[in-house]
């Protein structure tokens, strides 16, 4: 990722609101670190990464897995984050069933 531009870290960025925020930040010239549970299935983000050369990076995170959180933190060590947008959530049963 190039230096000098503000950086937004967005969790839950592979779809919905998180993906929308990623699009907005990229369009405004920010660098975006997209943290998602399954990077292999993040096809919309991958397409955006091709359109925004070196402005978007996609990383794995699973909020139910502390090791995953710590691995992302270690991988981003030394990178200044200007905005942390916590869009992902941990839930056992989102439908309450």
Explain what the structure shows.
The structure is a single chain. The chain has three helices and four strands. By secondary structure, the chain is α/β, with parallel strands linked by helices. The longest helix has 12 residues, at 16-27. The mean pLDDT is 90.
Ordered list of secondary-structure elements with their pairings:
Layout (H helix, E strand, L loop, with lengths): L6 E5 L4 H12 L3 E6 L6 H9 L4 E5 L5 H10 L7 E4 L11
Parallel strand pairs: 1-2, 1-4, 2-3
Features of the shown structure:
globular, 97 residues, four-stranded parallel sheet, alpha/beta, 4 strands, single chain
Secondary-structure class? alpha/beta
The value of Rg in angstroms is: 13 Å
N-end to C-end Cα span:
42 Å
The coarse overall form would be: globular
Total DSSP E strands: 4
Low-confidence stretches: none
Short description:
With 97 residues, the protein is of the alpha/beta class.
